[in-house]
């Protein structure tokens, strides 16, 4: 029996009620399909309400609370080391699916069915084993070989995010395995790649329930936000979903939109159902799930916007941003409907209020009335022990401010002698300044310069992409009828040809990713072949995404350039201001 068939039987045995069937979706792994109404079991019509397609009982929702109660000795010891009361929802679920996946793989290959790992596996098989067995080898840029990703995403904003995520996971795994010794008693020790797989699986399948639990207090999991939902998590994403989900004390329910019900009545074939993963741009879809959408209606980029360290007000500006919780980055939208409360940066581009406040602060200068002061604390503490002149004391206070501003005082910005201690104060003062039209122009220039930087970075890294193209990602290998490699031939010189997968064990040639170096003493597995297809598709997606990001950057740069020209041509105030500045400089 295939893992998918075993899963369906397990789901039915454990109370899942469904009109949906998980099966292969062309180019999208496994999806969920609604069969024709003529083929639906009539008994389901009496169990599910009108328009209801799926019920996953609460006992099958995988949460931190479920993990903490799970009867697995080595996992429980790991949770104790970290701290059951403090472990995050993410890490608890990641460790669970990691430990159970390793046990299942070990059980499948081990000839000793009496060791402790097999006892753990058998003892808990009735819980989530059949679900864990269906989890695919997720392929996202984070899970791939770093050098490969650096080639295909060279120069992009997405590469920065991937490298940062990879570094964070490497540090976390090192801390868990080294400093804490979390995996010491595990029958199978995870590798870094195993840990990255579990993290990617978590983020690609998790649902946030937030406040959807009913308020009647009947749910034992009301405090859990993050949930993995067997069965529903086979559903693929669409910007135009045809199903929705909701939760109550019984579990999770899935409902059809009217369009799907009409289509199913008029069709004799099964229809795939789609969820919305949210209004996510292709950058986020590729980062989390390993795919992108053509003509994605959510089009945006998030630019890192570090402050100019030569700014004489660098320190008080930085302190203000930290107190207000504003990160040094700006998200720019090409569609005003992406999220509520967006504000126009220029015609065709929109930003959130937080990004606007950051840019206002960056654009302000001493010429606009900007200044700063050290605000003494309520309980004054003498920091300078030795006598010193006033300049030395001010320098010392500013340096100490970085350590504990509650003791030595805070650096506070002022505009025309008015303190700017909050974002609300900034927002009430800046638009009323006479110089405000010039500030808006400065912002356009600041953002345009940053976009030019990223365009240049992509253009300058073209050689890295060419080197990546020259790497033999896929190695042609011939297999006999039993799936054993019979010879390894030299790589094909036709690097430009799209690799073609064969997800079976027939005679002939198939392509195996070199990053999954096959063991030539063992038969090639369907899992390796499926991974081959995933990697091949992901490489193509990354190449296309790089070109797409470049196109978005260029489009944004063009709009900003047009806006700057319009400001200069239409604003008499800006023209007179620039003329005055020119006279002062001369």
From TrEMBL:
Transmembrane segments: none annotated. It comes from Linnemannia gamsii. InterPro entries: SET_dom, SET_dom_sf, SETD3_SETD6_MTase. Gene3D superfamilies: set domain protein methyltransferase, domain 1. Residues 160-278 form the SET domain. PROSITE patterns: SET. It comes from the Eukaryota. This is SET domain-containing protein.
């Amino acid at each position: 029996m295939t893992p998918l068939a075993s899963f369906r039987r397990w789901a039915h045995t454990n109370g899942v009620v469904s009109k949906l069937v998980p099966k292969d979706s062309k180019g999208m792994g496994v999806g969920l399909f609604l069969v024709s109404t003529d083929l639906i079991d009539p008994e389901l019509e009496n169990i599910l309400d009108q328009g209801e397609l799926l019920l996953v009982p609460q006992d099958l929702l995988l949460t931190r609370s479920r993990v903490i109660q799970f009867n697995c000795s080595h996992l429980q010891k790991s949770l104790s080391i970290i701290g059951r009361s403090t472990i995050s929802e993410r890490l608890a679920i990641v460790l669970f699916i990691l430990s159970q996946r390793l046990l299942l793989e070990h059980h499948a290959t081990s000839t000793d069915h009496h060791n402790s790992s097999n006892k753990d596996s058998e003892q808990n098989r009735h819980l989530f084993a059949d679900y864990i067995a269906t989890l695919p080898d997720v392929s996202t840029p984070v899970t791939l070989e770093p050098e490969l990703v650096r080639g295909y995403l060279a120069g992009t904003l997405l590469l920065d995010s991937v490298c940062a995520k990879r570094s964070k996971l490497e540090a976390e795994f090192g801390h868990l395995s080294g400093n804490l010794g979390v995996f010491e008693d595990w029958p199978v020790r995870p590798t870094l790649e195993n840990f990255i797989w579990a993290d990617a699986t978590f983020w690609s399948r998790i649902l946030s329930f937030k406040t959807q639990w009913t308020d009647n207090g009947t749910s034992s999991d009301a405090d859990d936000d993050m949930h993995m939902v067997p069965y529903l998590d086979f559903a693929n994403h669409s910007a135009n979903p045809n199903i929705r989900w909701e939760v109550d004390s019984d579990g999770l329910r899935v409902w059809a939109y009217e369009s799907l019900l009409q289509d199913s009545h008029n069709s004799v074939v099964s229809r795939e159902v789609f969820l919305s993963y949210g209004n996510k741009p292709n950058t986020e879809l590729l980062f989390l799930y390993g795919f992108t959408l053509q003509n994605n209606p959510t089009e945006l980029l998030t630019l890192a916007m570090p402050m100019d360290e030569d700014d004489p007000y660098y320190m008080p500006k930085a302190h203000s941003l930290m107190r207000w919780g504003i990160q040094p980055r700006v998200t720019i939208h090409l569609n005003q409907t992406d999220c509520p409360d967006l504000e126009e940066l220029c015609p065709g581009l929109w930003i959130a209020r937080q990004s606007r406040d950051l840019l206002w602060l960056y654009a302000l200068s001493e010429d606009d009335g900007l200044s700063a002061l050290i605000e003494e604390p309520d309980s004054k503490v003498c920091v300078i022990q030795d006598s010193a002149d006033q300049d030395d004391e001010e320098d010392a206070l500013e340096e100490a401010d970085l350590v504990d501003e509650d003791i030595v005082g805070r650096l506070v910005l002022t505009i025309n002698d008015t303190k700017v201690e909050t974002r609300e104060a900034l927002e009430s003062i800046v638009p009323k300044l006479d110089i405000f039209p010039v500030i808006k122009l400065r912002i356009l220039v600041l953002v345009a310069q940053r976009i030019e930087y990223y365009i240049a970075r992509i253009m300058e890294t073209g050689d890295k992409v060419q080197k990546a193209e020259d790497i033999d990602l896929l190695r042609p290998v011939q297999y006999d009828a039993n799936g054993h490699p019979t010879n390894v031939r030299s790589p094909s010189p036709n690097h430009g040809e799209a690799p073609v997968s064969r997800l079976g064990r027939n005679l002939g040639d198939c392509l195996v990713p070199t990053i999954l170096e096959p063991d030539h003493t063992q038969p090639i597995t369907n899992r390796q072949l499926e991974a081959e297809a995933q990697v091949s598709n992901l490489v193509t997606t990354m190449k296309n995404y790089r070109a797409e990001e470049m196109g978005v950057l260029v489009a944004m740069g063009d709009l900003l350039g047009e806006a700057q020209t319009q400001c200069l041509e239409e604003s008499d105030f800006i023209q007179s201001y620039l003329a005055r500045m020119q006279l002062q400089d001369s």
